[in-house]
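Weekly modeling sync, notes
Attendees: S.R. (lead), two postdocs, one rotation student

Agenda item 3: backlog of single-chain predictions. S.R. asked that every request posted to the team notebook include the full sequence so nobody has to chase files. The rotation student volunteered to paste the first one in as an example of the format we agreed on. Action items at the bottom.

Example entry:
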Amino acid sequence: MKQTQKKSMKMFIVLIIGQFISSIGSGLTDFGLAIYVLNLTHSVSATAAISICAFLPSILLTPLGGILADRYDRRLLMMIGEAFSGLGLVICLVSIMSGSPSILVICIGVAVSSVFTALMEPAFKATVTDMISEEDFAKAGGLVQIANNAKLLISPALAGYLLLFTSVSTLIIIDILTFFTTVLTIAFVRNSIQSVREKKAVAEKTGMLTELKEGMDALKGTKGIWTLVWIMTLAVFCLGFVQILSKPLILAYATESELGTLTTVVAVGMLVGSVLISCMKHIKAYHRLLAIGLVGCGMFMALMGVREDIVMTTGFGFMMFVCMPVVQISAEVMVRRNLRNEVQGRAFGVIGFVSQMGYIVAYLCSGVLSDYVFEPFMCGDSAAAKRVGEMIGSGAGRGIAMLVILAGLLLVLVGLMALNSETLKTLGMITGKTAEQEDDTNEIIMESGL
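Predicted structure, as returned to the notebook:
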């Protein structure tokens, strides 16, 4: 048994290495495109439009990706999604290198890439459950966070350095090349382990709509899951503001290279948070851990906007990123331990669809509020603007800072809601049995006639 677990963990690490490489490439493109569009248009709304195109198709198709992850070979879906998402990047590259770049064409390219990413994410999350034992869930969650966030840990500083002597086109080309390595690692893992459906020996397949309904029913049938989903949706909404606004906020008083370095240093906080969670043992109350993470994220996020000081911003941003893996891993463990493995692909698909809509709403609001409300307000000479300016400064970029502060305070309130939720407490308390173990126990009782 231990030998099997060791082999599975080795295969899991190979998979994580592939995701790590892919994440670095994606981060180069994300950072480069954001700076490129911001310099081209001088508009936060245009940058937000690119982010919406990157997220919306993936979010809308995530439930379908979840169904496919439960019906077909999860590793094969990951390979297809990774390989074909490069098509969208080629579209972006052609537009940028044409000499007459079009924001519309770039949006289309980003959207095409997002469509195929929707195939990957639910399959990848469900594959984690396939490959490792229950006691390794938290440890695996930390490693997944490290891999997924290589785009923040390594890419920004690397991209900022490369942009000193090359263009965004080079960053996109590097991203395209990383796909090959990632596909090879997934292929290696696929040939080494069985899929969950092979192990379960499912005899027949039902319709996709039926399976989507089963995923919804699985969420409805577990007390506290929907409360968790709505809490995470509100949290994602708040974090969406800092995702869009952090670059123009910092570029108001720093260079692009400094922004890249700052972003990487700040993101090391996520590495620290992921390692801390991976090392924690015998966690009994994940709902409390979730609430602490949310409050910490919100508090440090608000402090990032208080002063135009690159050292302070880096410090507070670092602490915010320490808290982020605490939130993500706590939520995922609560889902994994309370839902059966064979419905987790569909469940993660539905959860991703609902919660990540918070990003879309935040992206829509942040650009409009920044460009047309908060920035004009803080650049004005009204009495209210002067009073606020005495606390956080006035002029260009301080309206964005005010918006970041308000979003951070809202996130603190979301954390307090999570702490006081009785249904989340029920979901988050670890009693020693997973949902699958409960089902096995029920089957034994029924078969024995008790």
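Discussion: group reviewed the output briefly. The first helix runs from residue 2 to 41.
Action items: rotation student to repeat for the remaining queue; S.R. to check formatting next week.
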